[in-house]
Amino acid sequence: MTTTATQDRPGPESRPDRARTPGAALAVLPDVLRSALAWTDAHRADFALPGDVLEPHTQVNATLKPLGELAQLGSTIRRTTAPGTPEHERAGDLVAYAWEQVAAGDLLLELLRAEPFAAYPYEIYAAFAGYGLRHEGFEALARPLTATRAWAHTEQHANRQLGLVNSERRVGVVTHTDAGAVLSRTWLGGLSEPWMFEGPSGYALTHTVFHLTDWGRMPDRVPEKIDGYLRTWLPAWADGCLESGQWDLTGELLAVAASLPGPAAEPLLDAVWPVLADVQHPTGCVPETGPPAQDTAERDTTAQDTTAPDPYPFIDCYHSTLVTAFAAALSLRSLRSPGQTDGSAPGRERRTA
Fold first, then answer.
1. What pairs with residue 289 in β-bridges?
2. Beta carbons within 8 Å of 57's beta carbon, 6+ residues apart
3. How many other C-beta atoms are found inside a 10 Å radius of the C-beta of residue 199?
4. Cα dihedral angle (206, 160, 324, 231), rounded to 10 degrees?
C-alpha cells in the first residue's frame, strides 16, 4: 500500500516526553483529523486520473493506487465519524470524487476486461462496493473470473491474499479460501518474534489487521492470541518508529491499536498521538519518513492554511496524511465508544475451489 520506510533517518531533534498523559490523545485528535482531511480535500486534484490511465505504459502505483487509497480510507473515515460533522461530510465528498474519477465504475470494468488476471481492479472496486457504490457490469464480469482455478491459486504473499478475501467479502461473493488458514501463514498470524519487526514486516502486519477487520470496522475478527500479542508489543514497535522518523508506519500502527477488540489502548494512544500531532505540518500534511519540515507557524485549531506552499512533494506525504486521518478517526471512535462497530455482518467464508 505504501513504500517501505527507511530505518536510518532520525526523528525530530526535540521530541516531547512520550510518557503517558491521560487524555493527551483526545486533546489533539480532533484537530489532527480535521487538518489532515482539509489538506487532502485541498489536494483532491492530485488524485485525479490521467487521460491515458488505461494505456499499458501508465504507472498504476502513481495513479490508480492513490485514488484507491483515497476511496478506501475516505470511506472508513466516513463510516467512523458522526453524521453531520464536517469530517463526515468531507470524507463522503472525497469518496464521491474518487467514484467520479472511475466513471462510476465504468473505468474499473475496462481495466478488468484488459487485465482479467489482475487483482487490483477488483480490490479497488471492492473499496467502493463496501461503501455501497456498485456497478452491475463489473460484477457480472467479475463473477465468472473469481470462480476460476487461476483466481483461487494466484501466488501472492499471505497478507495480500487476505486482502483479496476481504475484497470478496465486501463484494458479497463466496470467498475463494478460508481467512483463518491464510491468517495463520502471515507474519502476524505466526506470532513472530517481536524483535524481528522491521519496515516490511511492519507493513505486512498492519495490513493483515486491516484486511482481517475490514479496515477497523470489525475488531471482533481479531483472535484473542493476536489481540494479546499486539497489545504487548505495539508500544515498543511504535516507539521504535518514532525514534527512526517512520511517521507513515507509526500512523498505521496507531490504526491497528484502534482496531483491536475490547478496551481502547489508551496508554499507547496517549503516548504516541501527541508526537505525531507535532510532526503534522500546519497545512495538515504528514511526511512519510524523516525529519519533519520546520515551520514556526502556530497551529490554528479552527482552520488550516491549505493555500500555504507544500513542504513536501505530494507523492511523499499523501499516503501518510491519509493514514493519519484514518488512524485519528479510528482512535477517536475507540476512545469515545469502545467496542463500537458499524454492525455489518461478516461475509461468507468457504472455499470455492
1. 246
2. none
3. 18
4. -10
- Among 183, 195, 206, 190, smallest CA distance to 5 is for 206
Give dist(CA 59, CA 183) in Å, integer: 30
Could you say which DSSP state residue 263 is in? S
CA dist., res. 200 & res. 322, Å (int): 19
Of the candidates 207, 341, 166, 150, which has an alpha carbon nearest to the alpha carbon of residue 262?
341
**112 within 8 A of 142, measured Cβ to Cβ:** yes
All three cell numbers of 11: 526523528
Which CA distances in Å does 8 have to 29, 245, 287?
Answer: 28, 9, 15
User: Cα–Cα distance between 281 and 184 in angstroms, integer?
Assistant: 39
d(CA 174, CA 176): 6
Tell me how crowded residue 162 is: count the other CB atoms within 10 A of its CB: 26
**In Å, how far from its chain's centre is CA 16?**
26
Cell numbers for 342, please give them. Answer: 458499524
Mean pLDDT per 10-residue section of the chain, whose length is 353 residues:
36 48 95 98 97 92 96 97 96 98 98 94 97 97 94 92 96 93 96 97 98 96 98 98 98 98 96 97 96 64 60 96 98 83 43 36
CA 34 from centroid of its chain's CA atoms? 17
- Output phi, psi for 259, to 5 deg: -105, 5
Contact 269, 257 (CB under 8 A): yes
Ramachandran assignment for 105, one of left (phi > 0), alpha (psi -120 to 50 degrees), beta (any other): left
